[in-house]
Design brief:
Blueprint (H helix, E strand, L loop, with lengths): L2 H17 L4 H18 L3 H5 L2 H5 L4 E10 L5 E12 L5 E7 L5 H17 L6 E6 L8 H15 L8 E4 L6 H15 L19 H18 L9 E4 L4 H12 L3 E7 L2 E4 L6 H13 L5 H6 L4 E4 L10 E3 L9 H9 L4 E3 L8 H9 L3 E3 L1 H4 L2 H15 L5 H23 L8 H19 L4
Parallel strand pairs: 3-4, 3-5, 6-7, 6-10, 10-11, 11-12
Antiparallel strand pairs: 1-2, 2-4, 7-8, 8-9
The structure holds NADPH dihydro-nicotinamide-adenine-dinucleotide phosphate and (2Z)-2-iminopentanedioic acid (2IT).
Protein backbone atom coordinates (compact mmCIF):
# COMPACT_ATOMS: atom_id res chain seq x y z
CA UNK A 1 0.00 0.00 0.00
CA UNK A 2 1.48 3.39 -0.96
CA UNK A 3 1.85 6.27 1.51
CA UNK A 4 -1.17 8.18 0.20
CA UNK A 5 -3.46 5.16 0.55
CA UNK A 6 -2.04 4.31 3.99
CA UNK A 7 -2.76 7.88 5.17
CA UNK A 8 -6.25 7.64 3.73
CA UNK A 9 -6.91 4.41 5.68
CA UNK A 10 -5.57 5.80 8.96
CA UNK A 11 -7.52 9.07 8.58
CA UNK A 12 -10.68 7.19 7.73
CA UNK A 13 -10.30 4.82 10.68
CA UNK A 14 -9.59 7.68 13.09
CA UNK A 15 -12.96 9.19 12.12
CA UNK A 16 -14.79 5.86 12.46
CA UNK A 17 -13.27 5.23 15.90
CA UNK A 18 -14.08 8.77 17.10
CA UNK A 19 -17.65 8.45 15.90
CA UNK A 20 -18.22 4.92 17.26
CA UNK A 21 -16.18 4.83 20.48
CA UNK A 22 -15.54 1.50 22.16
CA UNK A 23 -17.08 -0.58 19.36
CA UNK A 24 -14.02 -2.76 18.84
CA UNK A 25 -15.60 -5.52 16.73
CA UNK A 26 -17.12 -2.87 14.46
CA UNK A 27 -13.76 -1.12 14.10
CA UNK A 28 -12.10 -4.47 13.29
CA UNK A 29 -14.61 -5.33 10.54
CA UNK A 30 -14.48 -1.82 9.03
CA UNK A 31 -10.68 -1.70 9.01
CA UNK A 32 -10.44 -4.98 7.14
CA UNK A 33 -12.76 -3.72 4.38
CA UNK A 34 -11.22 -0.25 4.21
CA UNK A 35 -7.69 -1.68 3.89
CA UNK A 36 -8.88 -3.83 0.97
CA UNK A 37 -10.87 -1.22 -0.92
CA UNK A 38 -8.74 1.88 -0.26
CA UNK A 39 -6.28 1.19 -3.11
CA UNK A 40 -9.29 0.72 -5.42
CA UNK A 41 -11.36 3.68 -4.21
CA UNK A 42 -8.51 6.18 -4.26
CA UNK A 43 -8.19 5.68 -8.00
CA UNK A 44 -11.90 6.36 -8.64
CA UNK A 45 -12.44 10.06 -7.77
CA UNK A 46 -16.23 9.86 -8.15
CA UNK A 47 -16.41 7.22 -5.36
CA UNK A 48 -14.31 9.51 -3.16
CA UNK A 49 -16.40 12.59 -4.07
CA UNK A 50 -19.62 10.70 -3.42
CA UNK A 51 -18.26 9.63 0.02
CA UNK A 52 -19.48 6.10 -0.64
CA UNK A 53 -17.28 4.48 2.02
CA UNK A 54 -18.24 7.13 4.60
CA UNK A 55 -21.90 6.38 3.84
CA UNK A 56 -21.49 2.58 3.99
CA UNK A 57 -20.00 2.66 7.50
CA UNK A 58 -22.99 4.63 8.82
CA UNK A 59 -25.93 2.18 9.16
CA UNK A 60 -29.08 3.45 7.47
CA UNK A 61 -30.96 2.78 10.70
CA UNK A 62 -30.26 1.35 14.18
CA UNK A 63 -33.19 0.17 16.24
CA UNK A 64 -32.71 -0.63 19.95
CA UNK A 65 -35.58 -1.70 22.14
CA UNK A 66 -36.67 -3.11 25.48
CA UNK A 67 -37.64 -6.78 25.58
CA UNK A 68 -39.52 -7.54 28.82
CA UNK A 69 -40.58 -11.13 29.54
CA UNK A 70 -41.58 -13.37 32.42
CA UNK A 71 -39.84 -16.64 33.35
CA UNK A 72 -41.58 -19.86 34.44
CA UNK A 73 -41.45 -18.80 38.12
CA UNK A 74 -43.12 -15.46 37.44
CA UNK A 75 -39.97 -13.37 37.69
CA UNK A 76 -39.64 -10.47 35.24
CA UNK A 77 -36.55 -10.03 33.05
CA UNK A 78 -35.52 -7.13 30.83
CA UNK A 79 -33.31 -7.77 27.81
CA UNK A 80 -32.22 -5.43 25.04
CA UNK A 81 -33.20 -6.02 21.41
CA UNK A 82 -31.46 -4.71 18.29
CA UNK A 83 -31.90 -4.48 14.55
CA UNK A 84 -29.15 -2.74 12.61
CA UNK A 85 -30.29 -2.00 9.05
CA UNK A 86 -26.97 -1.28 7.43
CA UNK A 87 -27.57 -0.95 3.69
CA UNK A 88 -30.51 -1.37 1.29
CA UNK A 89 -28.83 -0.36 -1.97
CA UNK A 90 -29.22 -3.71 -3.69
CA UNK A 91 -32.31 -5.18 -2.00
CA UNK A 92 -34.39 -5.39 1.16
CA UNK A 93 -32.38 -5.62 4.39
CA UNK A 94 -31.46 -9.24 5.08
CA UNK A 95 -29.53 -10.94 7.85
CA UNK A 96 -29.74 -13.13 10.90
CA UNK A 97 -30.83 -12.65 14.48
CA UNK A 98 -28.38 -13.62 17.23
CA UNK A 99 -29.49 -14.47 20.76
CA UNK A 100 -26.41 -14.65 22.99
CA UNK A 101 -25.33 -13.08 26.30
CA UNK A 102 -22.42 -11.32 24.53
CA UNK A 103 -24.64 -9.38 22.08
CA UNK A 104 -24.05 -5.62 22.12
CA UNK A 105 -24.24 -2.73 19.66
CA UNK A 106 -20.67 -3.23 18.43
CA UNK A 107 -21.29 -6.90 17.59
CA UNK A 108 -24.59 -6.10 15.87
CA UNK A 109 -22.97 -3.35 13.78
CA UNK A 110 -20.00 -5.48 12.75
CA UNK A 111 -22.32 -8.29 11.70
CA UNK A 112 -24.66 -5.98 9.74
CA UNK A 113 -21.65 -4.40 8.01
CA UNK A 114 -20.18 -7.79 7.05
CA UNK A 115 -23.60 -8.94 5.89
CA UNK A 116 -23.81 -6.05 3.42
CA UNK A 117 -20.75 -7.27 1.49
CA UNK A 118 -21.59 -10.96 1.92
CA UNK A 119 -25.07 -10.51 0.52
CA UNK A 120 -23.68 -8.57 -2.44
CA UNK A 121 -21.35 -11.51 -3.15
CA UNK A 122 -24.25 -14.00 -3.30
CA UNK A 123 -25.39 -12.46 -6.63
CA UNK A 124 -28.91 -12.18 -5.15
CA UNK A 125 -30.78 -8.91 -4.42
CA UNK A 126 -30.36 -8.55 -0.66
CA UNK A 127 -29.25 -5.59 1.45
CA UNK A 128 -27.43 -6.02 4.77
CA UNK A 129 -28.79 -6.15 8.34
CA UNK A 130 -28.37 -7.99 11.62
CA UNK A 131 -30.37 -8.17 14.82
CA UNK A 132 -30.48 -9.91 18.13
CA UNK A 133 -30.55 -9.71 21.87
CA UNK A 134 -28.39 -10.35 24.93
CA UNK A 135 -30.72 -13.22 25.81
CA UNK A 136 -29.27 -16.76 25.40
CA UNK A 137 -31.88 -19.53 25.00
CA UNK A 138 -29.50 -22.16 26.45
CA UNK A 139 -30.84 -23.38 29.80
CA UNK A 140 -34.31 -21.85 29.30
CA UNK A 141 -37.50 -23.89 28.91
CA UNK A 142 -39.38 -23.92 25.59
CA UNK A 143 -42.09 -21.81 27.25
CA UNK A 144 -39.57 -19.16 28.33
CA UNK A 145 -37.97 -19.08 24.89
CA UNK A 146 -41.44 -18.68 23.34
CA UNK A 147 -42.39 -15.79 25.62
CA UNK A 148 -39.06 -14.10 24.94
CA UNK A 149 -39.44 -14.51 21.16
CA UNK A 150 -42.99 -13.16 21.28
CA UNK A 151 -41.91 -10.09 23.23
CA UNK A 152 -38.93 -9.52 20.92
CA UNK A 153 -41.11 -9.81 17.80
CA UNK A 154 -43.80 -7.52 19.20
CA UNK A 155 -41.40 -4.62 18.73
CA UNK A 156 -39.39 -5.97 15.77
CA UNK A 157 -42.56 -6.52 13.72
CA UNK A 158 -42.89 -2.74 13.25
CA UNK A 159 -39.60 -2.60 11.37
CA UNK A 160 -39.56 -5.68 9.09
CA UNK A 161 -41.52 -7.07 6.14
CA UNK A 162 -41.08 -9.30 3.09
CA UNK A 163 -39.99 -6.31 0.94
CA UNK A 164 -38.44 -4.30 3.80
CA UNK A 165 -36.27 -6.47 6.03
CA UNK A 166 -36.15 -10.27 6.25
CA UNK A 167 -34.49 -11.73 9.39
CA UNK A 168 -33.25 -15.32 9.82
CA UNK A 169 -31.27 -17.35 12.37
CA UNK A 170 -27.74 -17.02 13.75
CA UNK A 171 -26.14 -18.05 17.07
CA UNK A 172 -28.89 -19.06 19.50
CA UNK A 173 -31.62 -18.76 16.87
CA UNK A 174 -32.56 -21.99 15.07
CA UNK A 175 -35.75 -23.60 13.84
CA UNK A 176 -37.51 -23.42 17.21
CA UNK A 177 -36.91 -19.69 17.66
CA UNK A 178 -37.79 -18.86 14.03
CA UNK A 179 -41.08 -20.72 14.59
CA UNK A 180 -42.01 -18.66 17.64
CA UNK A 181 -40.92 -15.43 15.94
CA UNK A 182 -42.89 -16.23 12.79
CA UNK A 183 -46.01 -17.19 14.76
CA UNK A 184 -46.02 -13.89 16.61
CA UNK A 185 -45.33 -11.88 13.44
CA UNK A 186 -48.21 -13.56 11.63
CA UNK A 187 -50.52 -12.94 14.55
CA UNK A 188 -49.63 -9.26 14.89
CA UNK A 189 -49.65 -8.43 11.18
CA UNK A 190 -52.36 -10.85 10.06
CA UNK A 191 -50.27 -11.85 7.08
CA UNK A 192 -48.62 -15.09 6.00
CA UNK A 193 -45.55 -13.88 4.17
CA UNK A 194 -41.88 -14.65 3.65
CA UNK A 195 -40.78 -12.10 6.25
CA UNK A 196 -38.48 -14.60 7.99
CA UNK A 197 -36.27 -17.30 6.48
CA UNK A 198 -35.18 -20.57 8.03
CA UNK A 199 -38.86 -21.49 8.38
CA UNK A 200 -40.15 -25.05 8.83
CA UNK A 201 -40.83 -26.98 5.63
CA UNK A 202 -44.58 -27.13 6.28
CA UNK A 203 -44.87 -23.34 6.59
CA UNK A 204 -42.80 -21.81 3.82
CA UNK A 205 -39.29 -23.04 4.56
CA UNK A 206 -36.83 -24.19 1.92
CA UNK A 207 -35.26 -27.61 1.66
CA UNK A 208 -31.56 -27.41 2.51
CA UNK A 209 -31.70 -24.07 4.38
CA UNK A 210 -30.57 -25.79 7.63
CA UNK A 211 -27.68 -27.45 5.77
CA UNK A 212 -26.80 -24.49 3.55
CA UNK A 213 -24.13 -22.63 5.52
CA UNK A 214 -22.08 -25.73 6.33
CA UNK A 215 -22.56 -27.30 2.89
CA UNK A 216 -21.78 -24.01 1.15
CA UNK A 217 -18.63 -23.67 3.27
CA UNK A 218 -17.44 -27.07 2.03
CA UNK A 219 -18.31 -26.27 -1.61
CA UNK A 220 -16.29 -23.07 -1.32
CA UNK A 221 -13.40 -24.89 0.39
CA UNK A 222 -13.40 -27.47 -2.43
CA UNK A 223 -12.91 -24.61 -4.89
CA UNK A 224 -10.04 -23.20 -2.83
CA UNK A 225 -8.35 -26.60 -2.59
CA UNK A 226 -8.78 -27.12 -6.34
CA UNK A 227 -6.61 -24.05 -7.02
CA UNK A 228 -3.76 -26.16 -5.61
CA UNK A 229 -4.85 -29.40 -7.22
CA UNK A 230 -6.25 -30.77 -3.95
CA UNK A 231 -9.60 -31.93 -2.52
CA UNK A 232 -11.18 -33.04 0.77
CA UNK A 233 -10.38 -36.68 0.00
CA UNK A 234 -8.20 -38.16 2.74
CA UNK A 235 -7.69 -34.83 4.52
CA UNK A 236 -7.88 -34.33 8.30
CA UNK A 237 -10.32 -31.54 9.19
CA UNK A 238 -10.72 -29.75 12.51
CA UNK A 239 -13.96 -27.86 13.19
CA UNK A 240 -14.96 -25.56 16.05
CA UNK A 241 -18.55 -25.21 17.23
CA UNK A 242 -21.22 -27.89 17.40
CA UNK A 243 -24.18 -25.81 16.24
CA UNK A 244 -25.93 -25.41 12.92
CA UNK A 245 -22.92 -24.42 10.82
CA UNK A 246 -20.46 -26.85 12.43
CA UNK A 247 -22.81 -29.84 12.18
CA UNK A 248 -23.46 -29.55 8.45
CA UNK A 249 -19.87 -28.57 7.65
CA UNK A 250 -18.79 -31.76 9.43
CA UNK A 251 -21.36 -33.87 7.59
CA UNK A 252 -20.42 -32.54 4.14
CA UNK A 253 -16.65 -32.66 4.73
CA UNK A 254 -17.03 -36.26 5.87
CA UNK A 255 -19.14 -37.16 2.83
CA UNK A 256 -16.52 -35.56 0.58
CA UNK A 257 -13.98 -38.03 1.94
CA UNK A 258 -12.36 -36.09 4.79
CA UNK A 259 -11.69 -37.25 8.33
CA UNK A 260 -13.34 -34.76 10.73
CA UNK A 261 -11.68 -35.09 14.12
CA UNK A 262 -12.96 -32.23 16.32
CA UNK A 263 -16.10 -30.35 17.36
CA UNK A 264 -16.44 -27.87 20.23
CA UNK A 265 -18.67 -25.60 22.28
CA UNK A 266 -17.91 -22.72 24.61
CA UNK A 267 -16.90 -25.17 27.36
CA UNK A 268 -14.28 -27.21 25.44
CA UNK A 269 -13.65 -29.49 22.48
CA UNK A 270 -13.72 -33.19 21.62
CA UNK A 271 -10.98 -34.94 19.64
CA UNK A 272 -11.90 -38.17 17.89
CA UNK A 273 -8.75 -39.41 16.09
CA UNK A 274 -10.76 -42.02 14.15
CA UNK A 275 -12.99 -39.31 12.72
CA UNK A 276 -16.73 -38.82 12.52
CA UNK A 277 -18.95 -41.25 10.62
CA UNK A 278 -22.69 -41.30 9.82
CA UNK A 279 -23.54 -43.02 13.12
CA UNK A 280 -21.55 -40.50 15.16
CA UNK A 281 -23.10 -37.61 13.18
CA UNK A 282 -26.59 -38.95 13.91
CA UNK A 283 -25.66 -38.92 17.60
CA UNK A 284 -24.42 -35.30 17.37
CA UNK A 285 -27.65 -34.16 15.64
CA UNK A 286 -29.75 -35.80 18.34
CA UNK A 287 -27.50 -34.55 21.17
CA UNK A 288 -27.42 -30.91 20.00
CA UNK A 289 -30.75 -30.39 18.24
CA UNK A 290 -33.17 -32.58 20.21
CA UNK A 291 -31.67 -33.02 23.68
CA UNK A 292 -29.79 -29.68 23.56
CA UNK A 293 -26.87 -31.34 25.38
CA UNK A 294 -23.17 -30.47 25.59
CA UNK A 295 -20.41 -31.71 23.27
CA UNK A 296 -18.49 -33.33 26.16
CA UNK A 297 -21.13 -36.09 26.16
CA UNK A 298 -19.67 -37.24 22.81
CA UNK A 299 -16.45 -38.35 24.51
CA UNK A 300 -18.38 -40.40 27.06
CA UNK A 301 -20.38 -42.05 24.29
CA UNK A 302 -17.54 -42.89 21.85
CA UNK A 303 -14.45 -44.58 23.38
CA UNK A 304 -11.21 -43.46 21.78
CA UNK A 305 -12.31 -39.82 21.73
CA UNK A 306 -11.22 -37.28 24.35
CA UNK A 307 -12.83 -34.15 25.79
CA UNK A 308 -10.57 -31.19 26.54
CA UNK A 309 -12.38 -28.73 28.83
CA UNK A 310 -11.68 -25.02 28.46
CA UNK A 311 -9.69 -25.43 25.23
CA UNK A 312 -10.14 -24.71 21.52
CA UNK A 313 -9.26 -27.33 18.89
CA UNK A 314 -6.58 -25.40 16.96
CA UNK A 315 -3.54 -27.29 18.33
CA UNK A 316 -4.75 -30.59 16.82
CA UNK A 317 -2.68 -31.36 13.66
CA UNK A 318 -4.79 -31.05 10.51
CA UNK A 319 -4.87 -30.26 6.81
CA UNK A 320 -7.96 -28.04 6.92
CA UNK A 321 -9.46 -25.89 9.70
CA UNK A 322 -13.09 -24.74 9.60
CA UNK A 323 -13.87 -22.28 12.42
CA UNK A 324 -17.68 -22.43 12.86
CA UNK A 325 -18.40 -21.04 16.35
CA UNK A 326 -17.96 -17.28 16.86
CA UNK A 327 -15.90 -14.12 16.26
CA UNK A 328 -12.22 -13.91 17.26
CA UNK A 329 -11.94 -17.59 18.18
CA UNK A 330 -8.58 -17.94 16.34
CA UNK A 331 -6.05 -15.67 18.01
CA UNK A 332 -2.31 -15.25 17.38
CA UNK A 333 -1.19 -18.34 19.34
CA UNK A 334 -3.96 -20.43 17.72
CA UNK A 335 -2.79 -19.38 14.24
CA UNK A 336 0.78 -20.31 15.14
CA UNK A 337 -0.47 -23.68 16.37
CA UNK A 338 -2.37 -24.24 13.11
CA UNK A 339 0.72 -23.49 11.01
CA UNK A 340 2.87 -25.72 13.23
CA UNK A 341 0.29 -28.51 13.01
CA UNK A 342 0.57 -28.64 9.21
CA UNK A 343 -2.69 -26.89 8.35
CA UNK A 344 -2.88 -25.81 4.70
CA UNK A 345 -6.31 -24.20 4.50
CA UNK A 346 -8.47 -22.12 6.86
CA UNK A 347 -12.00 -21.43 5.61
CA UNK A 348 -14.33 -19.47 7.86
CA UNK A 349 -17.83 -20.76 8.60
CA UNK A 350 -18.33 -18.27 11.43
CA UNK A 351 -18.32 -14.49 10.97
CA UNK A 352 -14.89 -12.92 11.63
CA UNK A 353 -13.58 -15.89 13.68
CA UNK A 354 -9.93 -14.95 13.01
CA UNK A 355 -8.25 -11.90 14.57
CA UNK A 356 -6.29 -9.57 12.24
CA UNK A 357 -2.99 -10.70 13.80
CA UNK A 358 -3.92 -14.35 13.25
CA UNK A 359 -4.95 -13.68 9.63
CA UNK A 360 -1.54 -12.15 8.99
CA UNK A 361 0.25 -15.23 10.39
CA UNK A 362 -1.93 -17.57 8.32
CA UNK A 363 -1.48 -15.59 5.10
CA UNK A 364 2.25 -15.07 5.56
CA UNK A 365 2.72 -18.82 6.07
CA UNK A 366 1.15 -19.32 2.64
CA UNK A 367 -2.02 -21.11 3.78
CA UNK A 368 -5.21 -20.81 1.78
CA UNK A 369 -7.46 -18.49 3.81
CA UNK A 370 -11.00 -17.29 3.14
CA UNK A 371 -13.05 -14.77 5.11
CA UNK A 372 -16.52 -15.72 6.34
CA UNK A 373 -18.23 -13.18 4.11
CA UNK A 374 -17.18 -15.34 1.14
CA UNK A 375 -17.10 -18.88 2.50
CA UNK A 376 -20.17 -18.79 4.77
CA UNK A 377 -22.42 -16.94 2.30
CA UNK A 378 -24.26 -20.15 1.36
CA UNK A 379 -26.58 -19.71 4.34
CA UNK A 380 -27.90 -16.30 3.42
CA UNK A 381 -27.85 -17.25 -0.28
CA UNK A 382 -30.23 -20.10 0.47
CA UNK A 383 -32.32 -17.71 2.53
CA UNK A 384 -32.51 -15.68 -0.69
CA UNK A 385 -33.69 -18.82 -2.47
CA UNK A 386 -36.31 -19.31 0.26
CA UNK A 387 -37.53 -15.75 -0.41
CA UNK A 388 -37.80 -16.53 -4.13
CA UNK A 389 -39.82 -19.68 -3.44
CA UNK A 390 -42.11 -17.76 -1.06
CA UNK A 391 -42.72 -15.06 -3.67
CA UNK A 392 -43.51 -17.70 -6.30
CA UNK A 393 -45.52 -19.78 -3.78
CA UNK A 394 -43.56 -22.81 -4.89
CA UNK A 395 -41.23 -25.39 -3.41
CA UNK A 396 -38.05 -26.47 -5.14
CA UNK A 397 -36.56 -29.93 -4.69
CA UNK A 398 -33.42 -30.48 -2.62
CA UNK A 399 -31.53 -31.14 -5.86
CA UNK A 400 -32.66 -27.81 -7.33
CA UNK A 401 -31.66 -25.86 -4.21
CA UNK A 402 -28.34 -27.70 -3.96
CA UNK A 403 -27.63 -26.91 -7.61
CA UNK A 404 -28.21 -23.19 -7.03
CA UNK A 405 -26.11 -23.29 -3.86
CA UNK A 406 -23.17 -24.96 -5.59
CA UNK A 407 -23.31 -22.47 -8.44
CA UNK A 408 -23.49 -19.48 -6.11
CA UNK A 409 -20.46 -20.70 -4.12
CA UNK A 410 -18.56 -21.19 -7.39
CA UNK A 411 -19.52 -17.68 -8.51
CA UNK A 412 -18.35 -16.18 -5.19
CA UNK A 413 -15.07 -18.06 -5.54
CA UNK A 414 -14.67 -16.78 -9.10
CA UNK A 415 -15.29 -13.19 -7.88
CA UNK A 416 -12.58 -13.66 -5.21
CA UNK A 417 -10.15 -14.85 -7.88
CA UNK A 418 -11.04 -11.96 -10.18
CA UNK A 419 -10.33 -9.24 -7.63
CA UNK A 420 -7.95 -11.07 -5.29
CA UNK A 421 -5.34 -12.70 -7.52
CA UNK A 422 -1.92 -11.16 -6.81
CA UNK A 423 0.81 -10.65 -9.42
CA UNK A 424 2.62 -13.75 -8.10
CA UNK A 425 -0.49 -15.86 -8.76
CA UNK A 426 -1.53 -16.37 -5.12
CA UNK A 427 -5.10 -15.46 -4.16
CA UNK A 428 -5.89 -12.96 -1.43
CA UNK A 429 -9.50 -13.97 -0.71
CA UNK A 430 -9.97 -11.10 1.77
CA UNK A 431 -9.10 -8.51 -0.84
CA UNK A 432 -11.09 -10.31 -3.54
CA UNK A 433 -14.26 -10.64 -1.45
CA UNK A 434 -14.14 -7.09 -0.11
CA UNK A 435 -13.55 -5.45 -3.48
CA UNK A 436 -16.15 -7.57 -5.32
CA UNK A 437 -18.81 -6.89 -2.65
CA UNK A 438 -17.92 -3.22 -2.46
CA UNK A 439 -18.10 -2.64 -6.23
CA UNK A 440 -21.67 -3.93 -6.40
CA UNK A 441 -22.98 -1.97 -3.41
CA UNK A 442 -21.07 1.21 -4.30
CA UNK A 443 -22.33 1.14 -7.90
CA UNK A 444 -25.94 0.82 -6.74
CA UNK A 445 -25.48 3.69 -4.29
CA UNK A 446 -24.05 5.97 -6.96
CA UNK A 447 -26.94 5.09 -9.31
CA UNK A 448 -29.56 5.90 -6.65
CA UNK A 449 -28.22 9.32 -5.72
CA UNK A 450 -27.67 10.87 -2.32
CA UNK A 451 -30.14 8.97 -0.12
P1 LIG B 1 -25.43 -22.07 16.82
O1 LIG B 1 -26.05 -21.31 17.92
O2 LIG B 1 -26.19 -23.15 16.14
O3 LIG B 1 -24.05 -22.71 17.30
C1 LIG B 1 -23.05 -21.91 17.82
C2 LIG B 1 -21.91 -22.80 18.30
O4 LIG B 1 -20.80 -21.98 18.61
C3 LIG B 1 -22.24 -23.57 19.57
O5 LIG B 1 -21.54 -24.77 19.58
C4 LIG B 1 -21.77 -22.61 20.64
O6 LIG B 1 -21.43 -23.23 21.87
C5 LIG B 1 -20.53 -22.04 20.01
N1 LIG B 1 -20.30 -20.68 20.53
C6 LIG B 1 -21.15 -19.64 20.51
N2 LIG B 1 -20.61 -18.58 21.11
C7 LIG B 1 -19.40 -18.97 21.52
C8 LIG B 1 -18.36 -18.31 22.21
N3 LIG B 1 -18.47 -17.04 22.59
N4 LIG B 1 -17.22 -19.02 22.44
C9 LIG B 1 -17.11 -20.32 22.06
N5 LIG B 1 -18.08 -21.00 21.41
C10 LIG B 1 -19.19 -20.32 21.14
O7 LIG B 1 -24.95 -20.96 15.77
P2 LIG B 1 -24.58 -21.13 14.22
O8 LIG B 1 -23.94 -22.44 13.99
O9 LIG B 1 -25.76 -20.73 13.43
O10 LIG B 1 -23.50 -19.96 14.04
C11 LIG B 1 -22.10 -20.18 14.21
C12 LIG B 1 -21.33 -19.08 13.50
O11 LIG B 1 -21.66 -19.09 12.10
C13 LIG B 1 -21.62 -17.64 13.95
O12 LIG B 1 -20.45 -16.87 13.82
C14 LIG B 1 -22.65 -17.15 12.94
O13 LIG B 1 -22.67 -15.76 12.84
C15 LIG B 1 -22.12 -17.81 11.69
N6 LIG B 1 -23.06 -17.96 10.58
C16 LIG B 1 -24.25 -18.61 10.74
C17 LIG B 1 -25.08 -18.78 9.66
C18 LIG B 1 -26.38 -19.54 9.77
O14 LIG B 1 -27.03 -19.71 8.74
N7 LIG B 1 -26.77 -20.03 10.94
C19 LIG B 1 -24.76 -18.23 8.35
C20 LIG B 1 -23.46 -17.63 8.27
C21 LIG B 1 -22.66 -17.50 9.36
P3 LIG B 1 -22.38 -23.10 23.17
O15 LIG B 1 -23.45 -24.10 22.98
O16 LIG B 1 -21.45 -23.41 24.31
O17 LIG B 1 -22.88 -21.70 23.21
O1 LIG C 1 -24.44 -14.56 9.09
C1 LIG C 1 -25.30 -14.95 8.27
O2 LIG C 1 -25.13 -14.86 7.05
C2 LIG C 1 -26.52 -15.55 8.80
N1 LIG C 1 -26.65 -15.68 10.00
C3 LIG C 1 -27.62 -15.97 7.86
C4 LIG C 1 -28.49 -14.79 7.50
C5 LIG C 1 -29.71 -15.10 6.68
O3 LIG C 1 -30.46 -14.14 6.44
O4 LIG C 1 -29.93 -16.25 6.29
Amino acid sequence: MDKFTQNYVEGFMADVIAKNPGEKEFHQAVREVVESVAPYITSYPHLMDQKILERIVEPERVIMFRVPWMDDRGEIHINRGYRVQCNSAIGPYKGGIRFHASVNLSIMKFLAFEQTFKNALTTLPMGGAKGGSDFYPRGHSDAEVMRFCQSFMTELSRHIGADTDVPAGDIGVGGREIGYLFGQYKRLRDEFSGTLTGKGLAWGGSLLRPEATGYGLCYFTEQMLATRGESFQGKTVIISGAGNVAQYAAQKAMRLGAKVVTLSDSDGFIHDPEGLNEEKMAYVFELKNIRRGRIKEYAAKFPGSTYYPGERPWRIPCDIALPCATQNEIEKADAEALVKGGCRCVAEGANMPTTPEAIRIIQEAGLLYSPGKASNAGGVATSGLEMSQNSMRQHWTAEEVDGYLRRIMQDIHAACLKYGTEPDGTVNYVKGANIAGFIKVAGAMVDQGLV
